[in-house]
């Protein structure tokens, strides 16, 4: 199975589709958002993703902040007040989409409500990314399904059964291009909570595009996900980890993002095609490192070759030791000096 997003093909046999998750790390400032786009382009990612919402459609006035949000911000407020500071207007998102088109990077944004989803669809987004918090929001999934565009689901906090429910809700309305990203919804997420093998459990269980959305510190785990076959990798990044806001501390800085992309692409190159065969680059080494059959002692013309007459030494440009049995019992056509390579040409039955 493959998914097409813009000019990118996603699936087995294709490079990992790397999403730089800008999220709300623009802190409600469109100029910072544009700088994030610039850095994402420099890093070589495939797409940059924001979050589109209106706070009044997303949370109640009395919803409290998550523990990680309190810890990362260093203060406590309502979710509504926190999110209100991080909103961008629809007009600003249109501006960002146009900026992404100009910079030749795919624009994506996660909608958190029906209105935001409709707006993103009207902008002509290539695909929809649904956050972990809305995996069980079947009404929103059914609403997004009507657009008949590829859907990428994050699955933090979810069971396999809940993922199945989400996939069924999408397919029931005709969405076939579905990807599910394994995820641990802590910011940052501790290494021991990642359970990276679950990524392929999801992929194999539902025969879909699979990937990983990372919230750990650093780039080690997304690189490991690429080695395990992640079709999609998503990672938060920021301009400066010390900025005020809920997600900066669990994000990469621009240089780390660039290093992650470089490392993932190296991993993909190293994975190869899976066929075990010597590389053309090894041919010279083969002659040097492998061994040939040589005489263990001086052998006279007419002598019968026995096991005690054989030794195995470099270089490997002669008869391979694996053929030693084929020359046992044969006669030497000529005198053979110690360490001289023994070949079939200098033997007779």
- The overall strand count is 14
Distance between the termini: 59 Å
Task: Give the count of structural domains.
Answer: 2
CATH superfamily of the largest domain, by name, is Aldolase class I
Helix content: 25-40%
Query: Main beta sheet: strand number and arrangement?
Result: 8 strands, parallel
Report the portion of residues in β strands: 15-25%
Shape designation: elongated
Oligomerization: single chain
Query: What is the string of helix and strand elements?
Result: EEEHEHHHHEHEHEHEHEHEHHEEHEE
Query: Mean pLDDT across all residues, rounded?
Result: 94
Indicate the CATH topology of the largest domain: TIM Barrel
Q: Strand order across the biggest sheet?
A: 5-4-3-10-9-8-7-6
Quickly name the level 1 CATH class of the largest domain. Answer: Alpha Beta
CATH architecture of the largest domain: Alpha-Beta Barrel
Runs with pLDDT <50, length 5+?
none
EC number: 2.5.1.101
Keywords: Transferase
Enzyme class: transferase
Protein name: N,N'-diacetyllegionaminic acid synthase
Descriptors for this entry?
alpha/beta, Type Iii Antifreeze Protein Isoform Hplc 12, 2 domains, eight-stranded parallel sheet, two-stranded antiparallel sheet, 13 helices, 14 strands, 35% helix
